[in-house]
């Protein structure tokens, strides 16, 4: 059993949850959603979707084949598709906190998060850049979290995440490159079942610095990290020129690319296959995945949102939970 969070109720989270339940009800993996039942009924496809409002989340497994199990949480304001309201911020973050509590209690084997709007939550006082950092704090291991995006033909892991490009360059350190790479290697073994992961390291600058003529971070930050990793027995290829490391031939030679900043990692991943990409949080004592897309306020309520990334996120969370449990 997995727990799915509500996400921003003005986005597509409700309609894709309903569509995902229809696709998975007979095969699994089973999930419950922590959301307002009245809101779910109002979402596209919700009027004819059977809901089972739970009085105890442990009831969800027995119900899943016949109805979408809902662990109720109340919205403060009626949700309007495409028009987010920060009055609903406590329910949005409350849904995430309750999913984590269910995982910590062993009621669910992992959590899957529907998309949130960082701007809407932060306007209401939310102190975190995104789920990834919030989950690190909820698990009481802030700074241990690492964000991976995994697709059918590429896995990417940015070292700097939710910050401006200027700040990414200013805050990139050898220590962070080492931490993120180590965590990625461990997750590829434990969570993805890859016995000997092959890792590629991106440069930061054009041509990976062109021997110092187009930037020096490769020699001052990235290569020292690679040497330290090699001393630990973690071999990494690079620093690779970022413009050619995502070609089909290059991708065939590694299991994950360590990237220096958010868009260096996420542009190739989402361009190659946004519909099947999954966001995975590594480094925590918690299984968490998410669809790779956002709230899609522009199409919310129209019944045209694809549930495929959410279905892939549910399947990957289930796989990781099983891999962790068999390794334990
Ligand atoms: N995991 C998360 O919580 C998460 C991830 C990414 C973005 N966001 C948030 O989402 C908000 C909107 O971000 P954005 O506009 O950059 O990205 P987005 O992914 O919401 O939308 C980008 C484009 O893709 C389309 N799209 C997205 N998901 C789709 C789906 N399932 N089916 C069909 N079309 C889909 C949208 O309609 C839009 O045209 C931002 O506030 C951002 O913070 C949240
Ligand atoms: N950085 C992610 C993306 O652009 O797809 C996204 O914002 C999700 O981040 P969290 O999972 O930390 O909310």
Give a structural overview.
Catalyzes the NAD(P)-dependent oxidation of 4-(phosphooxy)-L-threonine (HTP) into 2-amino-3-oxo-4-(phosphooxy)butyric acid which spontaneously decarboxylates to form 3-amino-2-oxopropyl phosphate (AHAP). Belongs to the PdxA family. There is one protein chain. The chain is of the alpha/beta class and 328 residues long. The chain folds into two domains: 1-144 and 287-320, Isopropylmalate Dehydrogenase, CATH 3.40.718.10; 146-283, Isopropylmalate Dehydrogenase (3-Layer(aba) Sandwich), CATH 3.40.718. 39% of the residues lie in helices and 16% in strands. A twelve-stranded mixed sheet has the order 3-4-2-1-5-12-11-6-7-10-8-9, with helices on both faces. The protein is globular and about 60 Å long. It is built from twelve helices and twelve strands. The mean pLDDT is 97. Helix 8 crosses helix 9. The longest helix has 20 residues, at 308-327. Nicotinamide-adenine-dinucleotide binds at residues 12, 16, 115-119, 131, 279, 290, 293-296, 298-299, 305-306, 309.
The structural class is alpha/beta
Rounded radius of gyration (Å): 20 Å
Q: In angstroms, what separates the terminal alpha carbons?
A: 18 Å
Strand arrangement within the widest β-sheet reads 3-4-2-1-5-12-11-6-7-10-8-9
Residue-averaged pLDDT, rounded?
97
Which architecture of the largest domain would the CATH scheme give at its second level?
3-Layer(aba) Sandwich
Outline the biggest β-sheet: 12 strands, mixed
Write down the CATH topology of the largest domain. Isopropylmalate Dehydrogenase
| Order of helix and strand elements from N to C terminus | EHEHEHEHEHHEEHHEHEHEHEEH
The number of distinct structural domains comes to 2
Provide the β-strand percentage band: 15-25%
Question: What's the name of the CATH homologous superfamily of the largest domain?
Answer: Isopropylmalate Dehydrogenase
Number of strands: 12
Bound molecule kinds, no repeats = nicotinamide-adenine-dinucleotide, 4-hydroxy-L-threonine-5-monophosphate
Contiguous uncertain segments of 5+ residues: none
Subcellular location: Cytoplasm
GO cellular component, one term: cytoplasm
Main location: cytoplasm
Protein name: 4-hydroxythreonine-4-phosphate dehydrogenase
């Amino acid at each position: 059993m997995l727990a799915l969070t509500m996400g921003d109720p003005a986005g597509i989270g409700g309609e894709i949850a309903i569509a995902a339940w229809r696709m998975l009800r007979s095969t699994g993996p089973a999930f419950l959603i922590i959301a307002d039942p009245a809101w779910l009924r109002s979402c596209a496809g919700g009027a004819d979707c059977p809901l089972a409002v739970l009085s105890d989340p442990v009831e969800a497994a027995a119900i899943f084949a016949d109805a979408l199990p809902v662990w109720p949480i109340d919205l403060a304001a009626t949700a309007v598709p495409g028009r987010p309201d920060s009055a609903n911020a406590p329910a949005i973050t409350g849904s995430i906190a309750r999913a984590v509590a269910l995982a910590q209690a062993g009621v669910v084997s992992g959590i899957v998060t529907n998309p949130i709007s960082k701007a809407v939550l932060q306007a209401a006082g939310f102190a975190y850049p995104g789920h990834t950092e919030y989950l690190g704090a909820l698990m009481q291991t802030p700074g241990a979290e690492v964000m991976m995006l995994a697709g059918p033909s590429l896995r990417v892991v940015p070292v700097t995440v939710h910050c401006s490009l200027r700040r990414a360059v200013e805050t990139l350190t050898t220590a962070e490159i080492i931490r993120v790479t180590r965590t990625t290697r461990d997750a590829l073994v434990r969570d993805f079942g890859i016995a000997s992961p092959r890792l590629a390291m991106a440069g930061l600058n054009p041509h990976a610095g062109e021997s110092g003529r187009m930037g020096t971070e490769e020699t001052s930050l990235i290569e020292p990290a690679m040497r330290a990793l090699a001393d630990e027995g973690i071999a990494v290829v690079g620093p690779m020129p970022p413009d050619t490391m995502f070609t089909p031939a290059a991708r065939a030679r590694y299991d994950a690319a360590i990237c220096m900043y958010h868009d260096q990692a996420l542009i190739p991943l989402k361009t190659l296959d946004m519909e099947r990409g999954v966001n995975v949080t590594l480094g925590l004592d918690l299984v968490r995945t998410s669809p790779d897309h956002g709230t899609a306020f522009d199409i919310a309520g129209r019944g045209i949102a694809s549930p495929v990334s959410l279905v892939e996120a549910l399947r990957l969370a289930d796989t990781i939970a099983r891999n962790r449990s068999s390794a334990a």
